[in-house]
Design goal:
- It contains 11 helices and 8 strands.
- With 252 residues, the chain is of the alpha/beta class.
- Strands 1-2-3-4-5-6-7-8 form an 8-stranded parallel barrel, surrounded by 5 helices.
- The longest helix is centred in the middle third of the chain and has 16 residues.
- The two termini are 19 Å apart.
- The chain binds 1,3-dihydroxyacetonephosphate.
- The site of 1,3-dihydroxyacetonephosphate has 14 residues, from strand 8.
Length: 252
């Protein structure tokens, strides 16, 4: 079995002024020396990415976007492309976050195309999958997650997953304070890995699968201790440096 380096990524969503973000980044930077195992990533809003680049340049932390367009450049008012993120020093980009699926009409197909565009730009996509509460209650969790994952694999092939990260984010746990139990999360993570293993065991073994949904300093350790949970994608708790750093240290 491979040893997967844990990864903890902060998804700032649409939060932060220049001043607040500079303070947050300075706090994170100051604490990076205390993080032993995890790769630390921050994903600020587009307009704050240059600030993250300036603050985190030369540190062990990386930064990324929260979204990208499928096109490389051109007449796409309001959009930001993969090559632009790459040019701003991003290593990662989140694709298919449930908020984008639910509020901005991103279908499985669009998400798959964004995943492809991210890799074509040399970025590591963090592919978000996860079920709604109603889907969980209807025992559809595995079917939903499989459908979301398969859309990507069908477009880019399983080999492309080698240069990506998957984040399981049950929609009912996002921003609600209701975390999936370690066992609930582990069950879905195991399912995701097994589904990938069905196509390529080695890629499955190396694939980082993050958990997201009300992860915080106080519950990160037991979630990340699960065999198939390789880190976290953190919303609210990534906006407070000490809280975020506590999560980053959870795998140590
Ligand atoms: P919260 O940590 O605020 O629940 O958000 C999780 C999330 O959506 C990260 O992408």
């Amino acid at each position: 079995m491979s040893v997967r380096q844990p990864l903890v990524a902060g998804n700032w969503k649409m939060n932060g002024s220049q001043a607040e973000s500079a303070k947050l980044l300075a706090g994170i930077k100051q604490g990076l020396g205390s993080v032993k195992k995890a790769q630390v990533v921050v994903c600020p809003p587009f307009i704050l990415i240059p600030l993250a680049a300036k603050e985190l340049q030369g540190t062990s932390a990386a930064w990324g976007g929260q979204n990208l367009d499928t096109h490389k450049s051109g007449a796409y008012t309001g959009e930001v492309s993969g090559p632009m993120l790459k040019d701003a020093g991003c290593a990662y980009v989140i694709v298919g976050h449930s908020e984008r699926r639910a509020m901005y009409g991103e279908t499985d197909q669009v998400v798959a195309e964004k995943f492809k565009a991210a890799q074509e730009a040399g970025l590591i996509p963090i592919l978000c999958v996860g079920e709604l509460l109603a889907e969980r209650e209807a025992n559809q969790t595995e079917a939903v997650v499989a459908r979301q994952l398969d859309a990507v694999v069908n477009l880019v092939g399983v080999a492309a997953l080698a240069k990506s990260v998957v984040a399981y984010e049950p929609v009912w746990a996002i921003g609600t304070g209701k975390t999936a139990s370690p066992q609930q999360a582990q069950d879905v993570h195991r399912f995701i890995r097994a589904r990938v293993a069905g196509k390529d065991a080695k890629i499955a073994d190396n694939l980082k699968i993050l958990y997201g949904g009300s992860m915080k300093g106080s519950n990160a350790k037991e979630l990340i201790a699960q065999p198939d949970i390789d880190g976290g994608l953190i919303g609210g708790a990534s906006l407070v440096a000490e809280e975020f750093l506590t999560i980053c240290r959870a795998p140590d």
